[in-house]
Amino acid sequence: MSWTFKRVAVVGSGAIGLYYGGRLALGGEDVSFLARSDVDALTTAGLRVDSAHGNFHLPKVKAFPTAAEIGPVDLVLVSWKATSNAHLSEVLPPLLHAGTQVLTLQNGLGNCEVIAEIVGADRVLGGLCFVCINRLASGHVAHTAGGRVAIGEWRQADGRAEEIMRRFKTAGIPAEAVPNLEQAQWEKLVWNVPFNGLSVALGGVTTDVLLAAAETEARIRDLMREVISAARVLGLPLADGLIDFNIDRTRPMGAYRTSSMIDFTEGREVEVGPIWEEPLRRAKAAGLPMPHLTRLVEEIRARMARRDKAACGNR
Amino acid sequence: MSWTFKRVAVVGSGAIGLYYGGRLALGGEDVSFLARSDVDALTTAGLRVDSAHGNFHLPKVKAFPTAAEIGPVDLVLVSWKATSNAHLSEVLPPLLHAGTQVLTLQNGLGNCEVIAEIVGADRVLGGLCFVCINRLASGHVAHTAGGRVAIGEWRQADGRAEEIMRRFKTAGIPAEAVPNLEQAQWEKLVWNVPFNGLSVALGGVTTDVLLAAAETEARIRDLMREVISAARVLGLPLADGLIDFNIDRTRPMGAYRTSSMIDFTEGREVEVGPIWEEPLRRAKAAGLPMPHLTRLVEEIRARMARRDKAACGNR
User: Fold this and answer.
1) What residues of A are in contact with residue B271 (Cβ under 8 Å)?
2) pTM
3) What are the structural domains of chain A?
4) Are B147 and A82 a contacting pair at CB < 8 A?
5) CB distance B152–A188 less than 8 Å?
6) ipTM rounded to 2 decimals
7) Is B169 a catalytic residue?
8) What's the pLDDT at A314?
């Protein structure tokens, strides 16, 4: 059951609200504007946008002076200045039904929190607008540059990770709380994919052996680059510096046996799914081929099959 | 109402489970281990950890062969190999009460998803372990290096941002869905804090004027550096490259009037809270002083007070 929307309400008919609401209306969406002084101008003369991406005029615009006259919608865009946010507690409730989502296009921090107090945290989104717009007059907007919107679902850490972190620290375990678990998972894969992977693919070798040969160090770097690229395609901004960082911290570890190497040499199952197959699957689904990881997965599978066949023969 | 925990269960008594569960027990936490072949050894001889951070021995360890014998706990650590995850659907339910949280310490991707299927998405966390540990024998673990755990609450995007993005794009609006809204908000502040801020603080000036003087460009860079540092303290890895990127993209904008400058010159309220005060408050709460932003906020407040006083006098 995936959410979608038909009716849209725009709260605040300043430059941002008129521009984005106007674009959506131009594209055929059902948009109602909550306006103050502009209601008459919008209703009678419509909305005029002088835009760097092409001027347009909407002769008919649905504009209302109160939220009650708009009634429940599926998506609310909050686009007035944050300085008006004290009025959201009156304006939002008439616009809500059980599935209504609220997207704030406002600047800065703290707006999602205000909206979440009114509508509940699980239906708040934020949009960052990278755009140059000015409202010239009632129902008349000038758009001079940009226009991109970056939209994200708002979810606030609720302190569970921090509480576990504190108690781990109390027990002497170095711990930190991270705001984006998925990004932390991919950052860790930058190490696990090449080192755990090659330690198995090459038949059970320690990390110092992998780093001693120029050829395997080059494969490590290629795999790391692929993992970083995959994370980026998924919207997780991993830094290039992770490559040198991870190689530099591995050298002093000496003849380290990765956990997968230990599993391999002790005849246990290796975590092929989570460490190699799942990242590969997600990258491919996002349109990124990963030739180095593809080759590595094939080598690991072949090596596991050979080991298990040998183990059978030895019984 | 903030969540906390008393009873802890460790699912999987391999190296990771014994080490972290052992550290927690050593620190006084109430820890029960779900074990297989190790139950007798753990119960009779306890747990021995040879650790780079100091050896320790727990003579008494609570170890059980079934989850039912452990019963409901407040926190479950899942520490066995992902290759055993098919058994989680039997093992987790006896460990749950309404408030139980489940933290997976496993490698790779896809483990949170498996656990969420069983216990619900809103009580899953992931922990990334940066540690070198081997299990030498039953109840005996060697810890050679590291130990840090990065803990995050698991929350999966549910497609609302993607749906809005698609419909915005259909309407001709360049849009993207971002996985971490908070990070995107801070990235935008790298521009808004200095450019909107100085455009008001200096009495209503356009961006080209701010970039024309070496002194104001230096202030812009100082403010950007502070915003990036604040985001990093909050766990959001903003790149240094954002400084040049934002300055380079602003030069071609010419005599651009920031939205705050327009508000200022037209006598309207300026969004002092979300753009400057709230980032400053969050950075300070995290222990980071921001002298450049502190000065800027004072200048903006003084400039607003002077304007409003003048406006009163003109009435």
Assistant:
1) 81-83, 106-108
2) 0.76
3) 7-179 (3.40.50.720), 183-313 (1.10.1040.10)
4) no
5) no
6) 0.75
7) no
8) 54
